[in-house]
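Lab notebook, bench 4. Still working through the backlog of constructs that have no structural model yet. Next entry is a single chain of 243 residues. Request: give me the structure tokens for it.
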Amino acid sequence: MKRQVVCAAAFAISAVTLGVSPVCGAILYQFTTTDSNVPANDDGYDPAAVSILKDSAVNGPADGTSLGAGNVGLSRFFNTEFAGFSLASGNGNTIDNATEFATGYFQYTITANPGSKLNLMSLDFGSAVGGTGTRGFEIYAAVNGGPINFGDTPVLDVDAETGARATPVARSASLTAAKFQGIDSVTFRYYPTVPGTGNTIDFTGMTLNGTVTPVPEPSSAVALLGVTAAAMGLRRRHRRPVR
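Model written out:
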């Protein structure tokens, strides 16, 4: 219901004041995978097993190959162990410095088509561990091509994952803050925080939710400015004291 209200409000404002209509779809971008058995020892990444679902008004990695290019220094980036993605790195259970922060992560960027803006709501997915021991993850986000730096605050930080592959935990990172509204692009970076390079943290159904709003043509913006100025002038005239 909340998403419907937000979308309806955006539609009303855009339609009445700007003469345009926002694209109102819950899912902006989503990637999933089947449990691929290639290679036979279940250690690897099969891009053909990846499915991408996206709103027509956004761009992002178009297939499993381009999605896999977001692997930066991970010791494991698999989709061959269950119907999800399994990640591991050599950074340990905590990322201690900028050197560690510079590698051992998975990253992807979602961009609005020219003439449109993204209004984000949440990043939803299921999380799990692939074995025993304390394992977690951190997710960071930057807008409009901005940097992601060591010391930034993650949008989601889980120190000790409790989900299993058969029963993943539903996770949701809220993206309703003002900095995630009316943007051109967003980049997400996912760090596994695991004790060893062979210990994975897993996720399924990574889904970005929000809306896309068309940017008004310059003529529409000028018309809106004129209407606003006229309304202010009328208000001033009504306020003049009677002499």
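Notes after review: DSSP finds four helices and 14 strands in the chain. The two ends are 53 Å apart (CA to CA). Flag for follow-up if needed.
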